[in-house]
From TrEMBL:
PANTHER family: ABC TRANSPORTER SUBSTRATE-BINDING PROTEIN, ARABINOSE-BINDING PROTEIN-RELATED. It comes from Amycolatopsis speibonae. InterPro entries: Bact_solute-bd_prot1, SBP, TAT_signal. PROSITE patterns: PROKAR_LIPOPROTEIN, TAT. It comes from the Bacteria. This is ABC transporter substrate-binding protein.
Length: 432
């Protein structure tokens, strides 16, 4: 759920907040208390949680319940750093030899962090879990080994302002629509006289700009990194995807938000000046608060096959000795069990980590009162994740520059992709 450097990355943590009917009492009495440490006292697990106030409040309640059923373990929610700054802090901590037992690490950052021998292999823990979605497992797998525990999930779909569709006489899209239909629909929704755009696209060049393009690349048969890992895997597919961006820009039907986070774009959408946006479930509270009559539909595709992207985050475990590793594993096993996961999902802003969580009455009640939420959950069946590769940030930065240049009409798709490939390939050939 990483949209680096954006307030949207923080807002999404609260997209399901305020569900008053869900009890916050402990429900995992079957978990046997972990043994005390070798000194005879409780084992303390230090967690750098990375959350804003909303997520931290949910963790506080969950930790209090955990303490009641696991007297041999004490959880210290320390760290004092938001998730956006976690990579830098963890890197410094590993260099100094003073690091936490668990840290909240963005999925794309895991490959860099996992190069440290202090990162614990948790393959058996995840294998014994509740049956995590495949997309969640993919996000924590580095070179065939599971190096973290899934912590939060999202996905992308299209939010439509039904009032603008009705006003322009434009039919609402449905599953199976194409990117050509997306561009055509955006044209029909655009009214230059009233300052209304058919759609919007974050234009700061960061990850929020980039990850919207990957589903197009995958659908066309490309990949982020090519076979052998020495170059990009979207030299041709990237041009075709950028042609969609070019067509939107040429039709003047896309609002380009120059600021990180896309906040201006989302404000224009909820204000009735954008007809549809590609977004995630984190935007549902703002849409609901704006009293917008909306529809959530799956992303378009080129092939007719469903395709989207998920941006999972992780709980990464570090080795501070056998007692603390075992205590950390015990806590994460408890936290990701559906009984706790559903509380975290609803309170802090994640899609369910497993189908078992999705099937719980509490989640079903939440989906019944949140239009569009089931569409986002349904996409987890076929979503893909960005590669867990240490050079991904450089590849993303190169593609972000290319997308912005096409959005602004400064380069053709072919020229923009050619420059992207030069920078990205150079990063990929560096030994890591």
């Amino acid at each position: 759920m990483d949209v680096r450097g954006s307030s949207a990355a923080l807002n999404r943590r609260g997209f399901l907040r305020g569900f008053g009917g869900l009890t916050l009492c402990a429900t995992m009495g079957a978990c046997a208390p972990a043994p005390a440490g070798s000194t005879g006292g409780p084992v303390t697990v230090e967690i750098w949680h990375g959350q804003t106030d909303t997520g931290k409040k949910v963790l506080d309640v969950l930790v209090a319940d955990f303490h009641r059923t696991h007297p041999g373990i004490r959880i210290d929610l320390g760290g004092g750093v938001l998730a956006d700054a976690m990579l830098q802090k963890i890197t410094a901590a590993l260099a100094s030899g003073s690091y936490p037992d668990i840290a909240y690490v963005f999925g794309p950052d895991l490959a860099s962090v996992a190069r440290s021998p202090q990162v614990v292999d948790v393959t058996d823990l995840v294998d014994a879990g509740p049956g995590f979605w495949a997309v969640a497992r993919d996000a924590v797998t580095v070179n065939g080994r599971i190096r973290a525990v899934p912590s939060a999930l999202d996905s992308l779909a299209v939010a439509c302002n039904k009032a603008l569709f009705e006003k322009t006489g434009t039919p609402l899209p449905s599953a199976g629509w194409s990117w050509a239909e997306f561009v055509d629909t955006a044209r029909k929704l655009t009214d230059a006289g009233s300052g209304t755009f058919g759609t919007g696209w974050p234009g700061s060049g960061d990850e929020d700009t980039v990850w919207r393009l990957w589903p197009m690349v995958w659908d066309l048969g490309g990949d982020v990194i090519g076979a052998g890992g020495r170059g990009i895997g979207f030299a041709d597919q990237g041009v075709r995807a950028l042609e969609v961006v070019r067509d939107l820009a040429a039709a003047k039907c896309v609002y380009v938000d120059p600021k990180p986070g896309g906040e201006q774009m989302y404000q224009a959408f909820t204000g009735g000046n954008i007809g549809m946006v590609v977004t995630g479930p984190w935007q549902l509270p703002d849409i609901t608060e704006a009293r917008m009559d909306y529809e959530i539909v799956p992303l378009p595709s080129f092939s007719g096959r469903p395709m989207t992207i998920s941006g999972p985050d992780t709980w990464t475990v570090f080795d501070n000795g056998e007692d603390r590793v075992q205590a950390a594993r015990t806590f994460l096993s408890w936290l990701t069990d559906p009984a706790q996961d559903v509380r975290w999902d609803i309170g802090a802003g994640s899609l369910p980590l497993s189908r078992r969580t999705q099937e719980l009455p509490a989640w079903q009640e939440k989906t019944s009162e949140t239009p569009g939420l089931p569409v986002f959950v349904g996409t987890l069946e076929y979503a893909k994740v960005r590669p867990v590769h240490p050079a991904y940030p450089q590849v993303s930065a190169a593609l972000g520059t290319a997308i912005v240049s096409v959005l602004l009409g400064e380069a053709t798709p072919a020229d923009a992709l050619r420059e992207c490939a030069k920078a990205a390939d150079a990063a990929l050939i560096i030994p890591r």
